[in-house]
Amino acid sequence: xxxxxxxxxxxxxxxxxxxxxxxxxxxxxxxxxxxxxxxxxxxxxxxxxxxxxxxxxxxxxxxxxxxxxxxxxxxxxxxxxxxxxxxxxxxxxxxxxxxxxxxxxxxxxxxxxxxxxxxxxxxxxxxxxxxxxxxxxxxxxxxxxxxxxxxxxxxxxxxxxxxxxxxxxxxx
Length: 172
Fold this sequence. Notes:
By secondary structure, the chain is mainly alpha-helical. It contains 6 helices and 2 strands; from the N terminus they run αααααββα. It has helices at residues 2-30, 47-67, 75-80, 87-107, 110-114, 126-152, and strands at 116-119, 122-125. It holds the Pfam family DUF1572.
């Protein structure tokens, strides 16, 4: 039973990671290359910085910690960047990072999902790390979507085109 629960947990986390990637991809499609490094205010982050930050966070938590590899993150550099990485390079970097994180999560054992470890001074189980990555990824996906809507003066980015979101729940 424990293995089935672990497998379901992993698949649900991966689904959430894929959803964030899909939504960022739809936002990216609507942004011009000049938009990637624009900031809403001087104290805000550009989409480019947010992508670098997401790659750093996903690598530190999901790939390094869950994969038991050396943590080489340089977090401050993610926010200091003001260009130098193209829109296509950022998109590829994000996709590659998420794929590596998914592979890492799929390959860890149930005991590794339960084992506690320290990341950024916090102590989490493998489950806690996977949840952190999902919620952190989702949070910044929302920021990217919001900034894309502002830049393009849109109310809808097409995340759910073709899906009726008014369908009621079925109780079996």
